[in-house]
Design a protein that fits this description.
Blueprint lengths: L1 H45 L7 E3 L8 E6 L3 E9 L4 E9 L4 E8 L9 H4 L1 H5 L21 H19 L13
Antiparallel strand pairs: 1-2, 2-3, 3-4, 4-5
Length: 179
């Protein structure tokens, strides 16, 4: 009797695992499509004046640049810079003249109440609008209190996006704002 119950339990667990596996595989494509649709809806807000975007190839030498989307008025650059806890990923809208027109933190895992504020503090994020690669934490950009490392990561990501569009060399510090 015990063996029959054990076999029945094992079969039930196996069937449940199989259902979860098949559901996960089936929903993975839907999740990817939803992420892509959300990105396409977000891009015009990051780069006002552009309505259609095409993905461009990113060279392997661009370690902070994750993706590039070209619009009519400039580019939206997906960057990633090391924060206090992990990478902070940004979408930065840069016009053809190298000016930041918009930005959004799309992923961060910084400390709640400190570094995580880089994603939600509108006054902090607004400091980058209109900059052209000269943003410098502590000088032209006020860091969030208690989150200097996270603030510097956002600054690096924004400056890397501008440098990508303008062709500035941030790796050597050959610009006035350094690397």
């Amino acid at each position: 009797m015990k063996e029959k119950g054990l076999v029945k339990s094992i079969v039930t667990i196996f069937v449940a695992a199989l259902i979860l596996f098949v559901s996960n595989k089936g929903l993975a494509g839907m999740e990817k499509a939803n992420r892509e649709r959300y990105l396409q809806e977000l891009l015009p807000y990051i780069l006002p004046g552009s309505s259609t975007f095409t993905s461009e190839e990113v060279g392997q030498e661009e370690e902070m640049i994750k993706a590039v989307y070209k619009g009519e008025t400039g580019y939206v650059i997906h960057t990633a810079a090391n924060g206090y806890v992990n990478e902070i990923e940004l979408l930065v809208g840069v016009d053809h003249g190298g000016e930041v027109k918009g930005l959004s933190i799309c992923r961060q895992q910084e400390t709640f109440g400190l570094g995580a504020g880089v994603q939600t503090n509108v006054a902090f994020l607004q400091q980058y609008l209109g900059t052209s690669g000269e943003a410098e934490t502590g000088s032209t950009v006020d860091a969030l209190t208690g989150a200097t490392v996270s603030s510097k990561a956002v600054t690096k990501g924004v400056n890397a996006a501008v440098a990508y569009v303008t062709g500035a060399d941030i790796s050597s510090g050959a610009t006035t704002w350094g690397g």
